[in-house]
Amino acid sequence: MTRVFIVHGWGDKPGDHWMPWLKGQLELNGFTVAAPAMPYTEAPVIGAWTSHLNREVGKTGEAAYYVGHSIGCQTIIRHVEQLPAAGTVRGATFVAPWFTLTNLTAEEQTIAQPWIDTSIDFARVRGRLPELTAFFSDDDPYVSLDNQSLFEQRLGAKTHLLNGLKHMGVESGMTTFPELLATTLKALG
To answer: Between residues 173 and 50, which one has the greater pLDDT?
Structure first.
């Protein structure tokens, strides 16, 4: 059985916005779902977040599928990059993922800069991530639409552009996300 890991975003926790709903829906469909509380959520650090996810996933050899929001997507990418071999990852669905950010305060830019500047071996990630779907919003104040084409080019993502959902988190009032559930269930098929 495939385990599903939901990785929240910067400043969030596993019980925020659509995440508890998605977890519950996936569990109703028979999946084991973990939604770890990531450390230092107000000032995420690459090493701390990827190490935490590595520990949560463990080394069981069981197949895993990932759902991430914002910086949680970056964490998943960097976790997958560290895996020793392909084969244990079924895929991922990302919500508001980014390689670049806009409209940050000076403090936020300082926190985000290592995530933006630290290189990723995209070929390695593509080789370990057989299926990737990403959702973007046309009015996201932080994630410019350039990121949509970057995810298509760098990771071969299938992308969907949604209207008027901002960063698809707390600020947009989303407590459910039917498109995300449908995409995830289809991928887990």
So the answer is: 50
